[in-house]
Amino acid sequence: MILRLFAWPVFLLAYTVFAALPIPYNVRMDAVNTRYIMIWDRNHSMANHNITFTAQYTFSHAQSYTGVCVRISEERCDFSKELDFNNGYILRVRAEGRGQMSDWYWLKFIPDEHAALGPPSNVTFDPGDAMLTVSFREPMAEDNTPMSSLLVMSFSLQYWEKHSPSKKQERVFDTTEGTLFPLKPWTEYCLQVNAFSKPYNKTSPYTQQQCVRTLGQPPVWKVLLALLGCVGLMTIVPVYRCHKKRKSIVSKHTFPSGILHNTQDPISLLLLPREESCAVTVVMAVQVEQTSQGQQQQVKGQGDVEAEQDSGSSSIQRGQGSSSQDSGIYSGEDSGKRSAGSTTTSQPEERH
């Protein structure tokens, strides 16, 4: 009987130990500026069960806890509105369900030590002659107040010429606006800004780099290069268009193979007799310009002209023949006959 009385509490204790819910694990804080969110992971054995979580906090020197998230199904709890930046806290979370609870997971959290500092925002530029004025918005708290009200901050501005990213320069400002000078006129610069606090040993990430060009007169070599580029463009484009047009014209006209593959010396064509050279010219003109009807008419006109030239040349030859008869050069018999005839015709008739 006594053994039974002692065995029952032992059984209940063992059942409670082995049947207790697994404790949440990988508990961490997502803390930036004054945003404090506790995040954890649940055990895989809880996936198919109605498991909830409870998260609480207390001051490091107190014993009573204040519940912030009670029986929530999410695996995160937002403490941003409950915790002050300059205090230290103890946070804890546990799993609940099936009439049981897991053990607490404790986490020590000091915001001004553990919270990260966020980068500035809304970076804008006002370019001037060989200078740049940069303005930005400092990191902000969750209640939309500047973080400079909670800690001492300064700002580091890195800048460099866009084509020389390895040659970075740095300027430090205590306000959210600064001027960079002297810079090169008409030159593109890239910039990025971050915030830091030496007393709290915090440094924010840099903002995404942005590029802007300064004002002022551009260097002479840039002006000359731009002019040369314009002149070259104005020269190349017409030449290219002319070449393209010539190529299209040549491709439209198909020359006879007899002309393209003619191996006869052009000079020998010039030395041909008049009639033969003209005939060759007419044949070439007819073969080249047979592509259009109007050009064919022109070729016919040229053929008529050549025919008239040929007929004219033959008439000239005949004229030359007749003139040779009247030139006074005769043979002996012809001269005798002409002299006898002339004597008979030269005698006057006697009148009776």
Helix content: 25-40%
What would the principal axes of the Cα set say about the shape?
elongated
List low-confidence stretches. Answer: 1-18, 275-283, 285-292, 305-352
Radius of gyration: 56 Å
Task: Spell out the CATH superfamily of the largest domain.
Answer: Immunoglobulins
Estimate the strand proportion: 25-35%
Mean pLDDT: 76
Task: Write the CATH architecture name of the largest domain.
Answer: Sandwich
CATH topology of the largest domain, which one?
Immunoglobulin-like
**What is the H/E order?**
HEEEEEEEEHEEEEEEEEHHHHHH
Q: How large is the count of helical segments? A: 8
Structural class: alpha+beta
- Count the strands? 16
Major sheet attributes:
5 strands, antiparallel
Describe the structure.
Pfam families: Interfer-bind (PF09294), Tissue_fac (PF01108). It comes from Salmo trutta (Brown trout). One of its GO terms (molecular function) is cytokine receptor activity. The protein folds into 4 domains: 103 residues, Immunoglobulins (Immunoglobulin-like, Sandwich); 93 residues, Sandwich (Immunoglobulin-like); 33 residues; 49 residues, no CATH class. Helix content is 36%, strand content 28%. The protein contains 8 helices and 16 strands. The strands form 4 sheets. Strands 3, 4, 6, 7 and 8 form a 5-stranded antiparallel β-sheet that branches. A hairpin with a 7-residue loop joins β11 and β12. α6 packs antiparallel against α7. The longest helix is centred in the C-terminal third of the chain and has 33 residues.
